[in-house]
Amino acid sequence: MKFICGFVLLLIFERSAGVIYRLNASEYYRMPPVTHLDPYELCMSRPGALYCSAELAVVTDGPSQLYDMMKEYSEHVVTHFNRTRLFYGICVTKTCPELYNANQTDLTNTLEACLNKTLWNEYQLKSKVTKIISCEKYGDTKHVDAADIMVAAIFVIILMLNLIGSLFGFYCNSKNKRANNLLLCFSISHNWEKLVKPANPDPEVARFRALSGLRTLTMMFVILGHAFLPSAVTAVNELEFEQMYDNLGYQIFFNGTLIVQTFFVMSGFFMMTKILSYSEHHQITWKMVPKAIVSRWLRLTPSYAVILAFTCTWMRFGGTGPFWTRVADVEVEDCRRDWYYNLMYINNYKDDSQCMPQTWYIACDMQLHVLGLVLLDVFQSVRVRKIALGCLLAVGLMTPFLHTYFQNLDAVLLVSPSIMATFFVTDPTFNNVYKRGHTNIINFALGLITGWIVYSWRKKNIDDGSMKKYRYGMWLVFPAMLTVLGVGAVFYLDRPPPPALVRAVYATLVKITFGMCIVLMIMGCVLKVENLYRGILEWSGWTSLARLSYCAYLIHIMHIRTLGGQKSTLTRVSFLQINMEAYGLICITLTSAVPFWLMVESPLSQIIHLALAGKKEKQETDINMNDTELEKKTDK
């Protein structure tokens, strides 16, 4: 009985330690809104207008029960907005014309005085401007600089090459003449044929066809997750937004950050399968490693560099508004400063940069690819390779544990309202565990092991029919994945976070558990254990979408920032609104990925392929990101 009483008192003590987890509506709306906007279009329609957006810190001159409540409520950062940090858009010339002087260069004091008038009258609080995000004047225009002109010239050259290549391809087809491979690379009609080309019917290649669907669906889920991020910045119904964390469906969605681990499993799987297939007829030597690294860099970089160049330059002309600088221009500025980290594929070790944040995965995958190449080249005997893979698995298990425990990090990447606004780049867990190469080894190692197992079974000619007895177990894989995602809801509960040791253990186990689900899914499809999941993932429609997946992954954040940054009013966040925006974004992303693939990705990939091959290839050779035909980009 004493133990039970002590335990209850401990829970009560924990829940009363200066943190407010719940407020009723009347108490909640005593606090000033986290985000407030004066009408932007109305303000900027008047000559001489000045519209500023700024981040504020709420302060008080003396004791304030409301301020204390705001601080205690903000302590639960997992599901609550920080009520002491505000974002306001102010039409200075309309709201506080008496305080504005057109000759002022420092507007900090003006904005503070303007805002304090409202905050004091309504809440008996004051504010301090911590950062002026932007100030736009009537008639302001953005000027084109040398970098913009240089990038525009490159785009014009690409367009001209596509025009010439398309005309040349049409001429050769009409005259039945043999076309030059180099010019044909830029033929849009030729590339369209490649894009819609059916999957390879060869039985051994078709065995891997389900992975096209797995890759495409994973890419779509990633876009769905990212599409939600601007909602935290533009939400007008902040209380309802915070209450979403009580819904199990949203909890599974928020914990969906694990979905990217699918890419690491597939990357390791394809690497091992290709190297084992290559080693059947070739000797693996050290000379292969630098060549393979350079080859992969050349295949990944051209499309990446084009999007990066656009982001650094012309993206800043994509819109205006109170959110534009905070949501979109911040990426432009960071890319102009940090672009070389991206092209060197080390940007996942560069913190506090919003330059194409989604590409942390591409950098991470590149690093793991190099690690895999070196490991498989050094350790070639079966026994030593098994030991090496075991050690790699152990390292993969230990790195998340050590980081989480000694740096006191969250067990998983928690999608909190305040972190969404920065695309996670200020979150310690994101920076130290989620995006690092060495903390994502575990599922890459699982992929390597899976590739070896599947290759060995195929070499032994194991009858596919003998695997059918495991189909009932395979049907449990998807529910198991949802369960893994759902368990993460415990870290959003209204209580203090678990001890560091518990979080470290969970951080270690959750990745490998989710990775094992993906492993079973891959093995079930490749070995034809069952027909339910395999039938869905082998749908022929995934073939073309899989070829677009790399382009879509590169450009989707650009669309999210542009659409979010152009908003000039707050929006009501709801299940319907989120779904409309998310699925609309998928359609926009895939639609824009088609011309990008036809005019940039496919032509540049073919040119690099021809250069690396050192000889002319057959025109029907498909060198693009294909449907798990174990070609050069399947493991992106």
Would you identify the regions where 5 or more consecutive residues have pLDDT less than 50?
1-16, 615-636
Structure class: mainly alpha
Strand order of the largest sheet: 1-3-2-4
Work out the helix count: 28
**Gyration radius from CA atoms, angstroms:** 27 Å
Please give a quick description of this structure.
The protein is mostly helical and 636 residues long.
Structural commentary:
By secondary structure, the protein is mainly α. The protein has two domains: 17-137, no CATH class; 194-613, no CATH class. It is built from 28 helices and four strands. It has helices spanning 2-15, 25-28, 40-44, 65-74, 92-95, 108-123, 146-175, 181-184, 188-195, 203-206, 210-227, 231-234, 238-243, 248-254, 261-279, 288-312, 324-343, 360-378, 382-406, 417-420, 428-434, 441-459, 471-474, 477-487, 500-526, 532-537, 542-565, 575-613, and strands at residues 35-37, 50-59, 85-91, 126-137. It has a four-stranded mixed β-sheet with strand order 1-3-2-4. It starts with a helix and ends in a 23-residue tail after the last helix. The model is unreliable at 1-16 and 615-636 (pLDDT under 50).
